[in-house]
């Protein structure tokens, strides 16, 4: 009975992180009510698990410091709901990892789950594209803009989220499949292992209109060491993107221009090249300029929502209550020691040291994200599961 509950918890949590249903979510914030229910359910099961893992005590230490620093640094800005939400993510994660430790959820189950989610994304995106083509109401549409009709979200909050979710799931699928078969794949060998999955992956990333998709594809290619295969496939991506997107190939152009400007670290040029992509990078640079390591506020933080006071003023085109800045904003608000502890924990649980692509994805999904964003915790849950099966141990 315990194994059934554990497996249900794992499926329920992973499904809720991967799938956003518009009727079960907040259109303004993009928060999924289904995910909140799953997190509460997972958190409640923590009392039924006796397993203990090495870093668990550090997660409890993180929670204690989070509450203490928040109360000490700025009581006027203290907001219980924000701290409770972070605590819910952390406790749910601990309970989830305890479920995995029971060894009742197999790698075969995990592979089946990933495959099902990717194909579901493909089917929904295809239906959405047909709806746009024949001018019908779009199924499960979210964050849709009429001036970019082919930029579709499928089963996520927005197109860029779909690209990251699918990319991370595919990389996780690759690692576990290699581990199960006991060998490393070349790019073309892996793509031939499951033609349906390959078609679904490429269709989603090449036609959903998100510039983020090209970054994900680049990282996917980077994973394979064969330079010849990488170059050929990259050319196919470019040709395919232009062919299937037609006049919507601006997605690739935006990605290329933003990539060039990012190399210069010029904030204004990044904003001009692609405002949507710059939202994930420029606030990080702004927050870095504000960070103070040797002051009391630098140690215990400046209080909740400190970054709201300046971020919208220095980054044009965002709402007045915009925070941004990823983990550096977290360091500004809660102190750099707490931030370093969280970064250590996420690095420890997510990164596979002999797989460099996981380090890059850790930086993108954790360092550039806010602590209460579902994408950060989605990547944390997925890569922790991947690492668990990859190492075949519970550390």
Automatic annotation (TrEMBL):
Keywords: Membrane, Transmembrane, Transmembrane helix. The chain crosses the membrane at residues 7-25, 31-48, 55-72, 78-96, 117-139, 159-176, 196-225, 231-249, 327-347, 359-383. The keyword Membrane applies. This is O-antigen ligase domain-containing protein.
């Amino acid at each position: 009975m315990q194994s059934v509950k554990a497996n249900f918890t794992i499926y329920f949590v992973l499904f809720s992180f991967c799938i956003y249903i518009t009727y079960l979510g907040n259109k303004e914030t993009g928060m999924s009510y289904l995910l909140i229910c799953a997190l509460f359910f997972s958190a409640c099961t923590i009392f039924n698990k006796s397993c203990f893992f090495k870093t668990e005590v550090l997660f409890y230490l993180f929670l204690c410091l989070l509450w203490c620093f928040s109360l000490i640094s700025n009581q006027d800005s203290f907001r219980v709901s924000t701290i409770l939400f972070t605590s819910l993510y952390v406790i749910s994660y601990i309970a989830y990892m305890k479920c995995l430790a029971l060894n009742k959820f197999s790698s075969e189950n995990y592979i089946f789950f990933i495959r099902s989610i990717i194909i579901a994304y493909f089917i929904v995106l295809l239906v959405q594209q047909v709806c746009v083509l024949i001018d019908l109401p779009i199924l499960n549409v979210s964050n849709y803009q009429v001036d970019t009709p082919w930029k579709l979200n499928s089963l996520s909050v927005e197109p860029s989220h779909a690209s990251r979710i699918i990319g991370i799931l595919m990389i996780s699928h690759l690692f576990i499949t290699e581990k199960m078969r006991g060998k490393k794949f070349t790019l073309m060998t892996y793509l031939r292992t499951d033609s349906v999955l390959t078609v679904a992956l490429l269709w989603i990333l090449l036609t959903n209109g998100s510039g983020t998709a090209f970054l994900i594809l680049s990282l996917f290619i980077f994973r394979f060491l064969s330079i010849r295969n990488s170059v050929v496939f990259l050319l196919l991506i470019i040709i395919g993107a232009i062919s299937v997107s037609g006049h919507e190939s601006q997605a690739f152009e935006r990605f290329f221009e933003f990539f060039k400007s990012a190399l210069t670290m010029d904030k204004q040029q990044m904003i001009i090249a692609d405002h949507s992509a710059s939202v994930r990078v420029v606030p990080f640079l702004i927050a870095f300029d504000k960070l103070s390591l040797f002051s009391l506020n630098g140690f215990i933080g400046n209080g909740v929502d400190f970054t709201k006071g300046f971020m919208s003023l220095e980054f044009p085109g965002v709402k007045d209550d915009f925070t941004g800045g990823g983990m550096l904003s977290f360091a500004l608000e809660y102190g750099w020691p707490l931030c370093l502890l969280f970064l250590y924990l996420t690095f420890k649980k997510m990164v596979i040291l002999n797989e460099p692509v996981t380090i890059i994805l850790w930086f993108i999904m954790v360092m550039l994200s806010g602590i209460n964003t579902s994408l950060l915790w989605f990547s944390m849950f997925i890569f922790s599961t991947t690492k668990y099966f990859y190492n075949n141990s519970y550390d």
